[in-house]
Amino acid sequence: MAKEQTDRTTLDLFVDERRPGRPKTSPLSRDEQLRINKRNQLRRDKVRGLRRVELKINADAVDVLNHLAEQRNMSRSELIELILLAELERQQQGN
Predict the structure, then answer these.
(1) pLDDT tens for residues 12-44?
(2) DSSP-assigned states of every residue in 7-56
(3) Rounded Cα gap, residues 25 and 6, in angstroms
(4) What does the alpha-carbon distance between residue 79 and residue 68 come to, in Å, rounded to a whole number?
């Protein structure tokens, strides 16, 4: 039987593996853990109806957004979404 690094059902195969450093709670490498966590995050976002949008804006605008988000006790992405939705609503009312 082949040993697969991401196989969680045969943990007994990993018992003899000794690596230097602090003890791990997972037999998976850090890279594999990050990959699995990212996949799970994308699934959670999809279930919540969220889609990823990448945006490049001026650093001064980012600073202002960070400040406003901190004042309102919300994340920057939540603030950007709020601003966009308000503008879209305003655009629809104007037509």
Answers:
(1) 666 666 666 666 678 888 899 999 999 999 999
(2) -SS-GGGGTT---SSS--S-SS-HHHHHHHHHHHHHHHHHHTT-------
(3) 14
(4) 8
Q: CA-CA-CA-CA torsion for 59, 55, 79, 43, nearest 10 degrees?
A: -140
d(CA 62, CA 67): 9
Its pTM stands at 0.59
Q: Which two tokens stand for residue 94?
A: 């104007």
Tally the residues of the chain.
Answer: 95
Domains of the chain, earliest start first: 28-94 (1.10.1220)
